[in-house]
Design goal:
The protein has 120 residues and is mostly beta strands. The protein has no helices and eleven strands.
Length: 120
């Protein structure tokens, strides 16, 4: 049984930082690309960042230069370091994995989400 659990969200002032964590169990974590997504009220879910098996990363234009995705395969954990936060970053953040190893379509395993609220 695959479990995906996010943590680290909270309330932060504009310009502040947060680090999100996502612990995954039940699959060979090192063989999976992983992604962070977010969804704000009234908006569609969007991909924020992705990290592949070879640690190659890519980011949404809206977070480039401010967010950093990383992974620790020994701990089966994915991270999202978020700096220079803006009010537009307010959303529920989700961690996601594909349905099979080496795939890059995040349509299978999702966490319950962690809320990030940025105040002015």
């Amino acid at each position: 049984q695959v479990q995906v659990v996010e943590s680290g969200g909270g309330l932060v002032q504009s310009g502040g930082s947060l680090r999100l964590s996502c612990t995954v169990s039940g699959l060979p974590f090192a063989d999976y690309a992983m992604g962070w997504f977010r969804q704000a009220p009234g908006k569609e879910r969007e991909k924020v960042a992705q990290i592949d098996l070879d640690y190659k990363t890519n980011y949404a234009d809206s977070v480039k230069g401010r967010f950093t995705i990383s992974r620790d395969n020994a701990k089966n954990t994915l991270y999202l370091q978020m700096n220079s936060l803006k009010r537009d970053d307010t959303a529920t953040y989700y961690c996601a994995a594909p349905d099979v190893p080496y795939a890059c379509v995040f349509n299978a395993y999702w966490g319950q989400g962690t809320q990030v609220t940025v105040s002015s």
